[in-house]
Design goal:
It contains four helices and eight strands, in the order ββααβββαβαββ. The protein is α+β, with helices and mostly antiparallel strands and 173 residues long. It has a domain of 117 residues: 3-Layer(aba) Sandwich (Aminopeptidase). It has an eight-stranded mixed sheet with strand order 1-2-3-4-5-6-8-7, sandwiched between helices. β3 and β4 form a beta hairpin. α1 packs across α2. 27% of the residues are buried. The N terminus is likely disordered.
Length: 173
């Protein structure tokens, strides 16, 4: 069977969703992640984060992968699938007083094509029980273009330091 994942295999797809890209409709879906996905996701993280980490003087090729491997919880992570290929991930982690959006990575060739916005919007819409008043939280690297995506989806800066921007989105009722 051909390898359909960026760095691995695809399969186990959930219901397809669609996003319009320059008059072309692209179908995307989620699939549950598995422990066997860890290595390709760690590699994707390194590729996606490298430009921002280098700009900040923080890129370490071992550390960027190991931080993911140490934190990876397959049961909280979904793989984003487009055209039968696993192109990224997003994780939703409930915590005391918040719901964290984490490990939101997308293969660079899919950046700016609307898939990330569609995935984030769908994830925010279904991430938790509507009765929960807890805000969504996430962090993004200083200067990352991803910050604009999060702001378009209602996230605002809660705090920041020289490396990270911590953002929050209060649930819309």
């Amino acid at each position: 069977m051909a390898d359909r994942r960026i760095g691995g295999r695809g399969g186990g797809h959930r219901a397809a969703r669609f996003v319009r890209m320059d008059a072309v409709v692209v179908s995307w879906s989620y699939r549950p992640s598995a422990p066997s996905d860890a290595s390709w996701i760690a590699e994707l993280r390194a590729v996606v984060m490298r430009p921002d980490l280098e700009r900040l003087g923080r890129f370490d090729p071992v550390r960027v992968r190991q931080r993911f491997l140490d934190a990876f919880e397959p049961q909280l992570t979904r793989v984003i699938v487009v055209e039968g290929v696993d192109i990224g991930t997003i994780a939703v982690r409930p915590a005391a007083g918040a719901v964290w959006i984490e490990h939101f990575y997308q293969a660079p060739e899919w950046h700016g094509r609307g898939v990330g916005g569609a995935v984030l919007g769908a994830t925010l819409a279904e991430a938790r029980d509507d009765a929960s008043p807890a805000p969504y939280r996430l962090n993004v690297l200083q200067g990352s273009g991803a910050r604009r995506l999060y702001e378009r989806h209602g996230f605002v800066v809660e705090s920041e330091d020289e490396v990270d921007v911590f953002m929050k989105r209060v649930p819309v009722s």
